[in-house]
Design a protein that fits this description.
Layout lengths: L2 H5 L1 E8 L4 E3 L9 H11 L4 E4 H7 L8 E4 L11 E3 L2 H15 L3 E4 L3 H7 L5 E7 L7 E2 L8 E9 L8 E8 L1
């Protein structure tokens, strides 16, 4: 492993419900403006890795970030993104970008299949815990509490149509 790979933090960022739900029919089951701001603040200027369905649900490349889309569909094309056929290749591209920009972190932003493939590689988790348990067809994988140390928690009370939520950042033990 190269020195740059050792210095690059692999982070997963997700918003999930009490039942680990992250989406249904390729749509997030809530709209929380504070979470969108948190996501932007944590990912800006860093390479982001996502699956094709996640990219299509966003609908465009995220500005200010190298967007790496993993897909097995060889005919898929999207302007403004780098395409990859595997998580391993996507991580290689992201690490090259981190080294190029002088950063230290890459972000994996979903969806469920990509999270499942990458959870064991993660060094850090940025989780927005949403105080709902919606019906879903996509879920964040289970984590083992003993493998993670919570380093920060910022709780937000429900407000109008917005459910309660908490920003939780954890590092691998």
């Amino acid at each position: 492993m190269e020195k740059s790979e050792l210095m690059t933090t692999v982070s997963l960022i997700v918003a999930h419900g009490k039942n680990r739900a992250i989406g249904k029919d390729n749509v997030m089951p809530w709209h929380i403006p504070g979470d969108l701001k948190f996501f932007k603040a944590q990912t800006m200027g860093k390479p982001v890795i996502m699956g094709r369905k996640t990219f299509q649900s966003i609908g465009r490349p995220l500005p200010g970030r190298l967007n790496i889309v993993i897909t097995r569909d060889v005919s898929f094309r999207a302007e403004g993104v780098s395409l990859s056929s595997s998580l391993e290749d996507a991580l290689r591209l992201a690490r090259e970008e981190v080294q190029h920009i002088g950063g230290d972190e890459l972000m994996i932003i979903g969806g469920a299949q990509i999270y499942t493939q990458s959870i064991d590689l993660a060094d850090r988790l940025y989780i927005t815990e949403v105080d709902l348990a919606p019906e879903a067809d996509a879920f964040f994988p289970e984590t083992k509490a003993e493998e993670w140390t919570e380093i920060s928690r910022e709780v937000h009370a429900p407000d109008g149509n917005t459910p309660g939520y908490a920003f939780v950042i954890s590092n691998r033990v």
